[in-house]
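Figure 3 (text version): structure tokens given as input.
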């Protein structure tokens, strides 16, 4: 499509790269990565992590408990978002239904809450899982914001297209 065609109404036909990404192999990969991380974290926390946490000094044990709760909550929020998005992709929910359900999923950027001295005392596999969950969360938040902005802007775009059509009809005779 030429620039002229794009300017004369092609916006309605424009491809939403964000929407396309949400339905792509990249999303499927993100979904698998997220669900795998949930499983890995649960397995670690119920097994080797539980054993390792028993050997920590009291301040480090408290930091471990705090971070494990935060990581578990973070991963459950990520999993909820991924499942919601997959339901939209598979036609089980409309994008509007997903937006109304989205308020239940709280995606808030986080960082590790303990200081570096305590962080070095925590088991390395635990810290690695927590850091991976933070990186995954950042990617999901970015995609969620992009999808939300796209959804929120469609009403404004429709209004703008309506106004553009009126102006074109007035000056171009129809």
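Below: residues designed for each position.
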């Amino acid at each position: 499509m030429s620039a002229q065609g794009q300017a004369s109404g092609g916006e309605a036909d424009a491809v939403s790269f964000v929407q396309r990404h949400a339905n792509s192999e990249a999303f499927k990969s993100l979904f698998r990565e997220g669900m795998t991380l949930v499983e890995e974290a649960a397995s670690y926390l119920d097994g080797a992590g539980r054993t390792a946490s028993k050997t920590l000094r009291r301040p480090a044990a408290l930091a471990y408990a705090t971070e494990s709760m935060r990581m578990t909550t973070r991963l459950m929020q990520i999993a909820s978002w991924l499942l919601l998005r997959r339901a939209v992709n598979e036609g089980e929910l409309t994008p509007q239904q997903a937006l109304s359900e989205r308020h239940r999923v709280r995606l808030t950027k986080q960082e590790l809450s303990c200081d570096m001295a305590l962080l070095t005392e925590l088991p390395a596999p635990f810290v690695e899982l927590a850091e991976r969950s933070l990186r995954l969360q950042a990617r999901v938040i970015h995609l969620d914001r992009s999808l939300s902005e796209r959804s929120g802007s469609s009403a404004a775009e429709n209004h703008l297209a309506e106004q553009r059509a009126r102006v074109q009809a007035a000056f171009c005779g129809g």
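The chain has one domain: 18-147.
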